[in-house]
Amino acid sequence: MTESGKIIMLGTGDFALPSFIALLDAGFPVLALVTQPDRPQGRRQELIPSAIKVEAQKRGVPVYQPEKVNEAEAVEHIRSLEPDFLITAAYGQILSAELLGVPRIGALNLHGSILPAYRGAAPVARAIQAGDSETGVTVIRMTPRVDAGGMIAFARTTIDPDETAGELEERLANLGAPLLVKTIEAVAQGRAETLPQDPSLVTKAPKLRKEDGVIDWKAPARRIHDLVRAMQPWPSASTTWTALPWTPKGPIRLIVHKTAVVEGQGEPGAVLAATKDGIDVAAGEGAVRLLIVQTPGKKPMPAVEFLRGHAVQPGDKMGD
Predict the structure, then answer these.
(1) Does 7-201 match 210-318 in CATH topology?
(2) What is the pLDDT of residues 160-194, one digit of tens each?
(3) Among candidates 252, 249, 250, 219, which has minimal Cα distance to 238?
(4) CATH of 210-318 among 3.10.25.10, 1.10.600.10, 3.20.20.30, 2.60.120.260
(5) pLDDT band at residue 40, thresholds of 50, 70 and 90?
(6) Which residues pair with 303 in a beta bridge?
């Protein structure tokens, strides 16, 4: 068992789970998991625990779920456990200066980008949306300013041109877990060096909104393809399909799950072809092939299956 210090883990999203498991498997004394309260999900609005909470219960780690972690009661509870470290990953709340001052050694965070690029809630999706070919993870010392602390360790990886945000986030989570373990040990033993972030290189990664997924067909095909990848698994990219000449049914909303960049040109948003290979739509530059789509209330389906029930024709319009 490691003697590197007692830990309280703060995490909620799936990105945090591999790190939590790695800490336990490495023998760290994990005093508690602090995670967001269970939220209603699905059509039945059932309270469903996060995967990391389920793992904690399975491993016998106490779970604490304050609504607001910076309130006095929560801070005092965490202080009473006398942690050496607070470790955060995809927790979902900003920690106050008072809370960050609780651990004996310090508070560390695993972030899903190579800082100072993509500070914020959605670093993985924003990197894909920007068309980046490389990203990674960074372990930082936490400060009250979001993702602004000194950098201790990095790990880099390439981004596959067809990789979705969900797929990349899973890879980054697994990349970051062993890095976090090594970093905690180095900090506890006084071997860690901390580098300041260059303020001139900071970029932002704001939280995703549903409207971020709306496709602008005037954009180049590659940018649209990157948007579709970035919006998976949430909020998903979307557009509307209008059959021309216009019909009383009006436009049908399409959720777009998978695309490819293909050759073609035309008025942005115009359907160029609808075949067994997919639905080709003209972009500002080039064309995008819709491969997997979904209508509201239905399951995602290959575009060829969608075409069996919808007479999409060249000249139809996608988008407003």
Answers:
(1) no
(2) 999 999 999 999 999 999 999 999 999 999 999 99
(3) 252
(4) 3.10.25.10
(5) confident
(6) none
Provide the residue ranges of all domains of the chain, joining segments of one domain with +. 7-201, 210-318
pTM greater than 0.90? yes
Q: Does domain 7-201 have CATH number 3.40.50.170?
A: yes
Question: Which class for 67: exposed (0-12), middle (13-18), buried (19 or more C-beta within 10 A)?
Answer: exposed
User: pLDDT value at position 1?
Assistant: 41
Write down the mean pLDDT value for the chain.
95
Question: Dihedral of the CA atoms 21, 22, 25, 29 (nearest 10)?
Answer: -90
pLDDT over threshold 80, residue 43: no
| Predicted local confidence at residue 247, as pLDDT | 63
Question: Which residues are CB-contacts of 143 (< 8 A; sequence separation ≥ 6)?
Answer: 100, 149
Q: What amino acid is encoded at 230 in this protein?
A: A
Instruction: Give the span between the Cα atoms of 86 and 105, in whole angstroms.
Output: 9
CB 282 within 8 A of CB 268: yes
